[in-house]
Structures are given as structure tokens and as C-alpha cells.
Write the C-alpha cells for this entry.
Amino acid sequence: MSIHVPEETWFKPPSGAERTWIGLALAWCLVLSIMMPYWHFKGKQNSTGDSYSVTPTAFGARVEQFVKTNKVGETNGIPIVEPSPGGDAYLQAQMWRWYPVLKLKEGQTYRLHVSSMDLQHGFSLLPMNMNFQVLPGYDHVLTITPTIKGEYSIVCNEFCGIGHHLMTGKIVVE
Amino acid sequence: MSTAIAIEPPARESSPSGLSVGNHPSAGVRTCETTGLPVCLTAQQFIRLNAVIAVVALLAGGVAALLVGLTRWPTVHLLDPVWYYRLVTFHGLNMLIFWILFMEIGILYFAATTLLNTRLFSKSLAWTSFAMMLSGAVLVDVTILLGKADVMMTSYVPLKAHSNFYLGIILVAVGTLIGVGNFFGTLYIAKRDKTYIGSVPLVVFGATAAAIIAVVTLLHGAIVMIPTWLWSLDVIKHVDAGWYRLIWWGLGHQSQQVNVCAMVSVWYMLGTITTGAKPINQAVCRGAFVLYILFINLASAHHLLVDPGVGASWKIWNTSYAMYLAVLASMIHGFTVPASVEVAMRKKGHNRGLFGWLAAAPWKNPGFSAFFLSLLIFGFIGGITGVTLGTQQINILAHNTLRIPGHFHSTVVGGTSLAFMGLAYYVVPLIFKREFYARGLARIQPYIFAVGIVIMSLGMSFAGSYGVPRRHWDVQFAGAQFAAGFGSGAHVMLGIMGVGVVLAFVGLITFVLLVVAAVFFGKKIENRPMTAW
């Protein structure tokens, strides 16, 4: 009875089916525990968590410098910027836009710096469905290699005020 | 069945040694006519108070849930963005915090006093706890509805709410902590006065595990909420966004483990009350509760799997090493709870085939059906999605998408809330001493709610797997700078979610009406057992 005081000798090792089940469950938990780190290194699909402290003002200045140096056009009033292959690219999140539009080359590797000027934002790349948290004060560096040509949208998936659902951006891979 | 509840008392209890007489003041206790258990009258008063406020919060949060759900259904798209975001905040706090915390304080008072045959430690502490929690909850709700706290339940800094929002949360948290302290005080006087012999019953053990985790949880809450409150008052200039997330999830995730412990304790209790189930091996059940206490805090890290500021090895260590030991605990309960029901049913002669015992279970008893459906939904949908989403490789595909609410609605709603509803089918007749009206409706209520929640959770999960964000007013992005959106598959899933929302709301409102009708207008139960379900 789970609502009554148990018999005096309640402490006994598991036996029978219960013991088998605990063994199976524990074994499966161990498999899961090993798989996550194993696939982090083997699969190479996850961010290493590379990040640096940065003030929004300093990050904004870097983004402006990046845009000035690498601008190749403009769309909807937002500059299109083509970073040098293998180099650094910057993406600034603010209420309620992703700035600038990035033009990347297929098969090249970039260090993409993402940070916020104001609130927390959520970087969500569609239709790939890849998601990262973007925080003010943190320069989140994602090492990315685009492998499929096309146009991708970025939406915000962390609530950032009343215009949250209007916050979209674009990445073009050529 | 002649008596309402088929509890066969163990041999020891029928011949109590002189010690086990309780420590109640005169006229401070009654014996339950149905179960034969002692009920401390002070505890009964506070179980009633907490349960009433819990159901009020459930109703408020439920109405918000319907409106929010109908807004996420693109065909309906009911609310404007201001009220959508406002009510998402309102819904989260009322359901996840107020409904569940008030219920849990009631459960703690019940488990400690009735099952250990002791009086409640302190009536004034119980009043203090209740008054603080209630005033905090009202303050939070009013602040949100006045439009001063459109910050979501997580209130991630630097998104800032009115200072009363944080103050209200602090009041609720401190009030809860005082209630938990009253529970520990009750355990202490029961032990001191030798009101029971040997070890505490399993349900009390589980409730104690919940209470221990609650203390750690609420301390995290204090560490993060007090500076944030001061920041909202301009006393502190800056609260770091990454620091806030790290500590907040020590509150946010662990509080879910309080819910799990409370829910599993309710499973054991309802299993015993409805079928006479007896755990096969108490050492195993208790060991599993200890695993929750030891390992769940580290698992909070899975909320930060795609965050900057914490490195990959920190993320992997915390989520792979310890989370799975907490998962192991749930795997164990997922076995021992139904196994104990099976043993009890087979003992009664229901031996046909592999599942004859299950077919013969009291499915018309809402206490049983709610408990067993809660077990199935929590285990098969909530648990599996939780372990999946907590994996680094998969989290990147799921973070902040609708897959996340798809997961936790099947743990905390299909699991915890449904189990608490099942409990209410006994709390009302046994603690409020009132009969239910419309008993036929009560028998099907758990099924309506469970089916609604399952459909809703699956709709959310599959929509989220297309990348549909959570907490988002318009997934068609009308008027946005760059076009974005989702294909028909995602829209179909959002429609399925909407149907589930409506069905679950029907189940919820049925529950609220049944409980309100019974508590305020039900036939009184005096000097007789409750009518058996």
C-alpha cells in the first residue's frame, strides 16, 4: 500500500521482471549518454558554443564596418553584403529586423557572428529549420558551410515585443 | 464493491501498538468514513482553500488557452497581436505556476497529515503561505491584464515588465516556500510524537522528494528574480541575459520535476485508492525518487543547448551525464506503477490473457481513468519527446519551435494536470464532503480532456518539426520585410492542433463546472462513505 507505512523489511534488492527492466533502462540510458558526445565530434553538425563578450554598441560598429567593406547591393532598403569566402560574416538582430542580407558562396566556410542590439532574439533559418539563441552582450560565432544553393529566410523565434512576428531576414547562397 | 474504496489495511495497522495514536488536539481530527484515515481539520481547511484557488487559476488559464489556441489556428486567427502575446503570458503563469502550485501545497498538507496521522505543524504558517501566494498571484494577473507585463512566462531580460510582475512572482515563490516549510515542520512533529511506526508511506516519500526539489527550485527563483525585480525598479543597472537564462532554468526546469514527483505520488495514491494496488518493491520506487532529487538540476542545461556563453562540453556533460539518470527514474516509475495495478487486478482474479487485467480495470472511475491516461500520455508522448528534444543534435531543430510546447503540454497537462483532475474526483467527496452531480459526465471527462491534449500536442509537435515558431502571432509573416512562411503541411498540423485545443477546452470546462457544482451545491456527505465511483 503506497498510502500506508510499509512493512519493516521493505528495503530489498529488485528482482524478477523489475530487475530486468531496470537493467534494460539503465543500459539504454548509457547508450544515450555516450551517443550525444560521440555524435557531437563525429557528426560535426553542432555549434561548439564559440562566443565572446561584446557590447551592443561595439557589435553595431563592427556590423557597420562589415557592411561598408563588403556591400554589393540593396534590397527592401537593407544592404546585401558578400563576405570574403572563409572570412567573418556579421548578422545583427534588433527589434524587428535581421541586418544585413548575407550573400554566401556554396561550399565556403564562414564564421558567422550573431548578436542582438536590444532584446533576446531567436535565429531560425527556414526552410532548413536550424535554431540558435541570440543574446545582447554575447557575440555568438557559428562556423557554417552552406551546402545547398538557394534563398533562405531568417525568422525570429524568441518573443521580442509586439513586432516579433514581423522580424524576418534573408540569406542567399550562390 | 460494497465500500467505495477497496483499501485492505496491512496486518500491522489493524493491531496498532500503543504508539500510533496521532498527536491531534481534541476536536482537531475526524475519521474518514470512506477510507478510515484520520483527517486533520486544520489541514482540511487549507487543502480546501488551496484547491479552490487552484481551480480558479485553471479556469482563467483555460479560457486564455482557448483564445491563444484559436489564434494559432491560421484559419481562425482570433486575437490581435497585443492580446495574443498578453494571454500567452497569462496562460503560462496561471496554468504552470498557480494551478499547479496551489494544488501541490494542498497535496503536501494532505500527504503529511492524513497519511502520517499528525496535526498540521502551524496554522499561522499555513495562513501566511496562502495569503502570500494568493496576493502574489492576483498581483501578477492584474499586472498582465493591465498590459504592463507582456513578457511571456520566462520574462527573459532585457525584456522588462512592470516591477509588480516580479514582485508578484517573488510573493508566490516565498509563499510556496513557507508552505513547503510547513510540510517539513509537519514531518518533524510526526516523527517527534511517534504518530507512525517505521518508514513513511511511499506517497509521503514522493511528496518529500517534491518538497526537497521545490526548495532548491525556489532558491534559484530567489537568486534570479530578486535582482531582476530590483533592475525593474532601476536599483540595479544591468542583468546579464545569459546569466538570467542559466539561473532562470534552474527554476523553470526543476519546478517541472517538482510536478513530476507530485504527479507520480498521485499515481501511486490513485492506484491504491482505485484498484488496491501495492508497489512490488518499495526500495525501487523510493530509489527512483532519490534519482530525481540528485540529478534533475543538471538537466536544466538542455534549455541552453543552442545558447552562446556556455561551451559544448558544458552542454554535453550536463545533459548526457545526469539527465539520463533522471530519465531512468521516470522509466522505473513507468514500470512500477502499472505493474502494481496489474498485480492488484490479477489478485482479484482478472487473469485472462496478457492484458485481461487492464481491460478489467475500473475505466468508469474517473479517478482511475485520469490516473492511467496521465501515465500513458506522460510516458509515451511527454517522456519520449522530452528525451529527444534534450539531445544536442535534435535540439538545434527544435529550439523555440512549436515542438517544445508540443512536448511540455503532454508532460505537464496530459500528465500532471490530468492526474490532479483524477485526484479531485476523490478530494471533493472526501475533503469537501460533497457528492458530484452528473456522474456520467464525470466518467467521460478525463477521456475528452486526454484526447484533446494528445491531438493538440501532436499537432504542435509536427508543426514545430517544420520550424513553426512558438509564441508567434502570425506564421504567414504578413507585412514583414522579407517574405517567409510555411507549406501546407505545417498549416494542416496547426489546424489539427486547433481541433485538439477546442476538445481539450471542452474537457477542462467540464471538469471546472463539475467541481464547482459539487463543491458549492453538491449533496453533503455526513456520517457515511462517499458513493463509490
Q: What stands out?
A: The mean pLDDT of chain B is 94.
